[in-house]
Specification:
The chain is α+β, with helices and mostly antiparallel strands and 731 residues long. Among the domains are: 2-314, Distorted Sandwich (Beta-galactosidase, Chain A, domain 5); 628-730, Golgi alpha-mannosidase II (Immunoglobulin-like), CATH 2.60.40. Helices cover 21% and strands 29% of the residues. The protein contains 13 helices and 36 strands. Strands 5, 6, 7, 8, 11, 12, 14, 15, 19 and 20 form a ten-stranded antiparallel β-sheet that branches. Strands 21-22-23-26-27-28-29-30 form an eight-stranded parallel β-sheet. It has a six-stranded antiparallel β-sheet with strand order 31-32-33-36-34-35. A hairpin with a 5-residue loop joins strand 2 (34-40) and strand 3 (46-53). Helix 4 (338-351) runs parallel beside helix 5 (389-399) and helix 7 packs parallel to helix 8 (495-513). The longest helix has 20 residues, at 2-21.
Length: 731
Amino acid sequence: MKNLILAGAIACAFIQANAENTESKIFRISTNETDLILQVGENGRLYQSYLGKKLLHDADINNFRWDIHAASDGSVSQRGWEVYSGSGNEDYYEPAIAIQHNDGKTSTYLYYVSSSTQDVEGGKETTINLRDDKYPVDVTLHYIAYPEENVIKTWSEIKHQENKPIMLSTYASTMLYFNYPEYYLTEFSSDWAKEAQMSSQQLQFGKKVIDTKLGSRAAMHTHPFFEVGLGQPVEENQGTVLMGTLGWTGNFRFTFEVDNVGNLRVIPAINPYASNYELKKNEVFTTPEFIFTISDEGTSQGSRNLHEWARNYSLKDGKGSRLTLLNNWENTGFNFNQEILAELMKEAKHLGVDMFLLDDGWFGNKYPRKDDKAGLGDWEVTHSKLPGGVPALVKAAKDADVKFGIWIEPEMVNPKSELFEKHPDWAIHDDNRKIYYYRNQLVLDLSNPEVQDYVYSVVENLMKENPEIAFFKWDCNSPITNIYSPYQKDKQGNMYIDHVRGVYNVMKRVKENYPNVPMMLCSGGGARCDYEALKYFTEFWCSDNTDPIERIYIQWGFSQFFPSKAMCAHVTSWNKNTSVKFRTDVASMCKLGFDIGLKDMSADELTYCQDAVKNWKRLQPAIMDGDQYRLVSPYKSNHMAVNYVSKDKNKAVLFAYDIHPRYQEKLMNVKLQGLDANKMYKIEEINLMPNTESGLSANGKIYSGDFLMKVGLEVFGFAHTQSHVIEISAQ
């Protein structure tokens, strides 16, 4: 009886609400370039009526109808593009939300209730409240439009007041719809040492799904971002393209569904794989943020939109400088002591970098970290290796006049560790089965608040003892295997999601308490590269593959969505068939670091690296904070080129690489972009080996920005793995 009364009250409320709000309730979510227009239909539900180039006249937004996108059965079923479509309604395609209610029924119909707008940093937030007319289920849609950057961020919140928990089986961040003749998807496949590999295909009728089931990482086989060419294949400098990325360090799913009349719906979401989520009464289920831009000038402009947005509003210390560094890994591996590290710190100073970074192998006593089979989880300095502990290392770095950074992997545990002996229930694993170990380790269960406290304490204890630690490299190598959470018990469907939320809880705590400490996000290479995690990190490691040829492709892929200051690139000994100069020039187009033995270099190579570091530091405002223009794609030629232009257009840097040119192939001038056509610019090749002069015909000459953009420079050659770094200065 009570349920009938409640249902009747809800229905009456909706009759009243719909009567009040169906008089052409329209929401305009706008940037300077894009309009997303939502409209409440005559039936009281919310529909997308337009998403595209910004309309010049406000009155035109009233010319749209909510039901113009009905399918061929529209005479029978009046339909439109519902913004947050529920399962079990008259829309027969992929829904945004699916719920099993207390009574066992599974249909969801969401109706408009209310809305609000407010100014936020950099933009305006629109909030729209929806409610089921039969069940006390509420969905709140959030949109933040950043006008200057032409970026929109959107997410949803789900809550209810049913007597018992409801079961969520689908929970999208949003739904976007498009009506074009054709759609072309560019996706980013991945593997260890082969991240961000780009490939494209036409989307035909039906569904294309990109998803992961890794649990603790955003990526291993694919990355949480994509590009869709609207009406034509994705191009660098022309055509309309949607570029989207999901802020979620865990299982994600992108669904691209072309319906029977050729419309496309795009649904970014947490992957519901093994994740039927039990949602308690009044508990809020918040979906990940989906960040997107629509560019009418190809991916080049779309990337600059996202880069600028990230630096301004998302990336930790997005407007700050970045530290150059020397890592010890290639020099020592696990085999080091206090004295060896102190000498490397002196080498860091000699090289001219800002910081020395101590990598893996410094911890564990009962099970010393001699390899990757033991010690992980026991975050105490190995006394036999480092008798002075971390304080002695911090002091040695200070004596060498460099900063000190340290590697941690706090979310993981080796079974051969004191932590696992004391708390086996803290690790995600199934005792009933033979355990599969990825990298000889297990993932700690971050859905458990007690484990969250422990993981946070790893950073806290190091910082309390060593407040001068200047940098953390935070690694996460293993996906989740042998799936079972001792903490979740009979709510295993919550585990994947609550685990990721636990990871973010820890990261947020670290940032709040140590806001000025730079941190690198690393995960078996470049497997963590999402904008939610990057709220708490200044940068991420793109790949363990530092072969400069492969890095050209990897960095090209990641640059589609991330600014150069967020992408770490190190000079190493990978691919010694290439020169130290080539390796350094490739790394210099991102956040520069070194992981190479100085003693293995010739005197000229060391001098070159010292000069390259000075140049990179001097040009950091252009490379790290300027506008990026990808000029020549390695996917379409045997060369690659990219240039960065400072905001005032007074300084630019051109990076040009000959990868594997063919014999006597036709070489084209590199036409720069982003310069001031009316300014005069001096051309100077930098990063030259000692006693070497530039062979470029343009070196030392002055050209107009107009000439450099329309005619360009002769920079490519026939030598394999040759590079040029060119400084372009307004006169």
